[in-house]
Design goal:
mainly alpha, 20 helices, ARM-like, membrane, transmembrane helix
Amino acid sequence: MNEFEYLIDNFKQLPVLIKIVWILSGILGVIIINLVIYLKYLRGYLRNKEKIFAKFQSEYEGELINYLYASEEEDATKLKIVKKMKTCIKDKFKRKIFLTVLSKLKNDISGEMADSIQHLYVESGLIDYSLAKLKSSKWDVKAVGIKELALFEITNVYSEISKYKDYPKQEVRNEVQLYFVNLFQFKGLDFLNDLITPISEWNQIQLLEILQKFDDQQITDISPWLKSENKSVVMFALKLAKIYNQFQVINILLELLAHENKDIRVEAIKVLSYFQANEAKQILKNNFINSSIDEQIAFFNMLEGIVETSDEDFILENVSHENFEIKTLALKLLKFINTDRFNSLSLVASDVESKAIFNYLEDN
């Protein structure tokens, strides 16, 4: 006790700053000890949870295999498994494990077995939990619910899913769009008709990848989407026009050359170039001076595929263009349609940049 009182007395005699340091050190030491204890507990808890997860996962995989391979004469076996699964999924942790196993199997197999898994998803009651997620106030839970319904091909909830196509959170909208196209292919693109919110560039790519898996599908009329007030819908429709060779929309593409959005104008030029639409040439020439650099470059790239000797005067007007890429393209086209004129300009070229371009084009 005397030693403790001695330490207290010594502490009282210390300068204030030293006292503060000691107190803070003591508090920090207590916090560190508590953190170490908590981390040890958490590590043990997670390891134990992993063991339990692996145990139930193995058990459910076995049950599902039995369910899938049970013959028609073994309906009693199937009913027993369904009954067991209905009981298991009442527990949130077990439900998560069962859904994980079922999802993995659904991704790995096809045909009749895939239909059996879809049937089990419905019969076990998992579908009810997915539908309940749609009503959650948390956007990420909604997105998961839509993703699950898409994975297990639940088509009869189309109208319910449609409510979220313009949802404020992009992640939810992405899942809605993937649901439509995965389950209804080109018919699923009807959501574009009155879509208000933008489609992300990444989701446009995903939607196109899904559609290209269905070669036997008849593409719907994309004209209304090219005229949409939603700029992202127009951009997506332009991609569809190019991929699926929609030559019948060329007149609408020509109208898009005057669209208020520059990116749409540029993309329209690229699609018209792909179609080698000569109808666009004169329009683009007339508006060339007032066009953006991106549009001008796109037009010169277009000319590479449809250039004619009658374009020489226009090309000559741009062989000294301030933009290096346009200047190079113009000289390249000139060399193609009139080599003599190209060579004569090469001889009088004086600036370093022009000489470099001529030297490059002469060797290529």
